[in-house]
Amino acid sequence: MFDDPLLWARLQFALTAGIHYTFVALTLGMAALILVSQFSAVLRGDAARLAAVRFWGGLYVVNYGMGVLSGLVMELQLALNWNGLNEVFGHVVSAPLAVETVAAFFAESTFLGLWIFGWDRMNRWLHLACFGVVTLTAYLSAFWVLVSNGFLKNPVGFEMRGGVAVLTDPVALVTNPSALLAFGHVATSTLLVGGLVTAGVSAYHLRRGSDPEGMFRRGVRRGVLAASVALLPTAAAGGAQYPLLFDPPASSGTTLDAAEIERIEAAGSGLVRVLAETGNAVMALVWTVFFLVLPLALLAWPLRGLDRWRWLQWLMPVLPVLALLAGVGGWVYRELNRQPWTVRHHLTTAQAVTELSPGLALLSFVLFTGVFVVLAGITGWLLVRFARRGPAGGPLAPAPPPDSGAAVPVHSY
Amino acid sequence: MELVAVVLLVGLLAGYSVLAGCDIGLGMLSPYVARTPEERRRVVSAAAPYFLGSEVWLVAAVGVTAGLFPQIEGEVVAGQWPLFVLLLAGWLVRDAGLWLRGRVAAAAWHAVWDTAVVAGSWAVALAWGLVLAALLGGGALPLLFTPLCVAAVALLFLLRGAAFGAERLVPVAGRTGAESAEAAARATRVLARAGLVVLPVAAAAAWLDGGVRAGAPALAVAAAVTAVLAVTAGVSGPRWSRPTSAAAMAALPVLAAVGGQVSAAVADPRSLVLVAVATAPMVPVLAVGQVWLYRMVRRPAPESGFFA
């Protein structure tokens, strides 16, 4: 079993995608909240609120770095390990990914650079606009990736010509319900994540009695509000996708006939089903916890419980961890449900993988998964460290005034 | 339509070579130009704003290759699997170094990530040399040409990095520490002269080696152009090395496109339309962002910042 290159390629993709998504969820959710905070700070010209933006922004940028590193591997991994998919469906699946890199990621990274280096050097409205572009392109990026992913689940808008899929209807590809609903679910659930991270970190500091200029009092409220707003839409956009899981795609039967499809699906492994259902259960369970806790937090708000109730302040920092777990669970469910297909009813996962020797597949797995685990561990540790340290000494904290210790007299006569 | 797609891809790769040559080359050179902890910090501080803006060109190029040239992707990327794994590993290690170095104030932490930046920069440059050799050699790595091609590409990266360092490592007015900038400025001359020797030899090897198709006269032309550019950089030192090294780096993807033995079968028209329609509205935003970012970081690197 372990000398099967397909297994290593699949495990590598699953683990790297799971790690990648965890950081992506944080990036998306926090971007929206930071944008609102910075808008409010700039509008009021309030230095205290801007200091808070620097704190949350510092966490955002540390997290973004890991998102980029893992995203690079995701993109090249598709080319290196999944050549069979590219040969047959490259024209269709990769076109949205091309748009993602050029139209979204390119702008996101450039404007994040401007935002990082533009503190104190740029007009504050322009600086805010830079983060506006970062937020917008982060969501745009998620959209195009999900267009590609949604096609795998519900292939639309293409024709098979000589064994190669050709895009015939770009509009159908972009308006694929499998992509749009997934985007709605990702956009709302990451807002839930962002809200819970903001509320959790703020509650941690409030419990320890640290609240410089009221930033964590504002943070816990903003976080609880964002998470509560996102709670029901998350479930709605998620639940609306269940029918799509089991209905055959409209293009079913154009590549393989019904008997072949049935034979391939019958050969699926039972372990995959168990794992998929576990992912689904984790996701549903975590959502239920939020459904019980968030109304309590909303109730505590007018009673000033968010600032005073210790048990709530102990509970809140646990919630973002649960939310990230649920995100991974959701992806496990979505992707494993597609098995044994890579493109449902058209291309099996075994056909999609590059023909690698077992040694090379294992090398690739050890190298990239190993590096990922180490880097994700370090980034996670840094995030917790900076979150606990508070606004002073954060990654984006203002530079200390130039030290005079090392200065040498300019003139020596 | 096919020409537009090819020009877009070569343009993205040329942008990457020119811009990333700066920060990758400086990363490769940093053991030479930065000897003290303070100098090493300034090297990372100088390179960091560039890598954020430069690697996106390569990401976009990979995306465009996958979306518009699925055959190239299959042939080149999957066909040269070990080379691209080396490239990706170097890229990952180098970026990790740049992102993580400034996060903890401890000498051992800095040493680990400085090493990662240097090793990753070398791995990326050498991997590009190997990829170019494989492209020109038609999939195989020619015995004689390959080491010379790798050496030539590494030299051009180093020259670009030295030219960049000679400007960007100059201390902010009133501060000490010009040694790194001077070391980089001295290196431009040495590297340009070394390039002057290696590039013609590599071009000659391409003719001698049976593996490289001699029917690509473009190869010799491009090599000659690169050599001439190297001369101007070598004669006048760091002063002209910035634009000339940029032109030399930009010649590399052009060389690969002209002399490379890949069939540029472009994706079908509808895929092209989708990519064109979806990206066109963003192009002005991208242009403004890139120009703005590079204008902002044109000045000598500040004393401290996010990355170092």
Automatic annotation (TrEMBL), chain A:
Keywords: Cell membrane, Electron transport, Heme, Iron, Membrane, Metal-binding, Transmembrane, Transmembrane helix, Transport. It is a multi-pass membrane protein. It comes from Thermobifida cellulosilytica TB100. GO terms for molecular function: electron transfer activity; heme binding; metal ion binding; oxidoreductase activity, acting on diphenols and related substances as donors, oxygen as acceptor. InterPro entries: Cyt-d_ubiquinol_oxidase_su_1. Belongs to the cytochrome ubiquinol oxidase subunit 1 family. GO terms for cellular component: cytochrome complex; plasma membrane. This is Cytochrome bd ubiquinol oxidase subunit I.
